[in-house]
């Protein structure tokens, strides 16, 4: 059973960066395809990017390209998502989620990390 | 504007059946049998309920079923129970397009 535990809530000023972590247990990070999905307050789900095993690389949603970086530390089984040049519209809950099937179905989710961008 | 279109709300009485639709295009829902459905209770993370159009992960009650016709996928909840009240989101693989996966805007299911 995969468990994903994310870092705590963050408050950032516009223009700053935020880095959210996602600690994996039950499996090793190398066995999983990790993705990041966000949800603005009262809004729907939005895929930000993740590892595509067919391509063998991390794919970022076009909307976030140039602003987002997803990395992994396999020594600690921890995944990271860093979003830069934050603006108020980036206020959201950010989730890490795993894709076991390889077809962008997300079977395990972290508890979510609220990032608030406010001056 | 979400890529997939869902009705904002649906409702039914306990024991009844409710069907939620999810309409996309031939580039996503109509092009692949990789439609998923997620249940989300307030303040909680989404939970996978259906994958590959109609398959249920272990532990998901068989009251939940999925289907697809053309560019429209559907989630049916039979024998509604109070705990089924939640938001439901569909998603679809979109091939080599970007984004690779698209979501619906969500449907609030109310058990009357």
Task: Record keyword descriptors for this entry.
heterodimer, A: 119 residues, mainly beta, seven-stranded mixed beta sheet, four-stranded antiparallel beta sheet, 50% strand, B: 112 residues, six-stranded mixed beta sheet, three-stranded antiparallel beta sheet, 9 strands, 0% helix, globular
What would your notes on this structure say?
The complex is a heterodimer of chains A (119) and B (112). Chain A has strands at 3-6, 10-12, 18-25, 34-39, 45-52, 57-60, 68-73, 78-83, 92-98, 108-109, 113-117. Chain A is an all-beta fold. In chain A, the strands form two sheets. In chain A, strands 2, 4, 5, 6, 9, 10 and 11 form a seven-stranded mixed beta sheet that branches. Chain A has a four-stranded antiparallel beta sheet with strand order 1-3-8-7, with no helix packed on it. In chain A, strand 5 (45-52) and strand 6 form a beta hairpin. The N and C termini of chain A lie far apart (40 Å). The model of chain A has no long low-confidence stretch (mean pLDDT 96). With 112 residues, chain B is mainly beta. In chain B, 0% of the residues lie in helices and 43% in strands. Chain B contains no helices and nine strands. Chain B has strands at 9-12, 18-23, 35-40, 47-50, 64-69, 72-77, 86-93, 101-103, 107-111. In chain B, strands 1, 3, 4, 7, 8 and 9 form a six-stranded mixed beta sheet that branches. In chain B, strands 2-6-5 form a three-stranded antiparallel beta sheet, with no helix packed on it. The chains are: A mainly beta (119), B mainly beta (112). Chain A binds chain B through residues 37, 44-47, 52, 59, 61-63, 95, 97, 101, 103-107, 109-112, and chain B through 2, 32, 34, 36, 38, 45-48, 51-52, 57, 89, 91, 93, 98-106.
List the helices and strands and how they pair.
The complex is a heterodimer of chains A (119) and B (112).
Chain A: E1 3-6, E2 10-12, E3 18-25, E4 34-39, E5 45-52, E6 57-60, E7 68-73, E8 78-83, E9 92-98, E10 108-109, E11 113-117
Parallel strand pairs in A: 2-11
Antiparallel strand pairs in A: 1-3, 3-8, 4-5, 4-9, 5-6, 7-8, 9-10, 9-11
Chain B: E1 9-12, E2 18-23, E3 35-40, E4 47-50, E5 64-69, E6 72-77, E7 86-93, E8 101-103, E9 107-111
Parallel strand pairs in B: 1-9
Antiparallel strand pairs in B: 2-6, 3-4, 3-7, 5-6, 7-8, 7-9
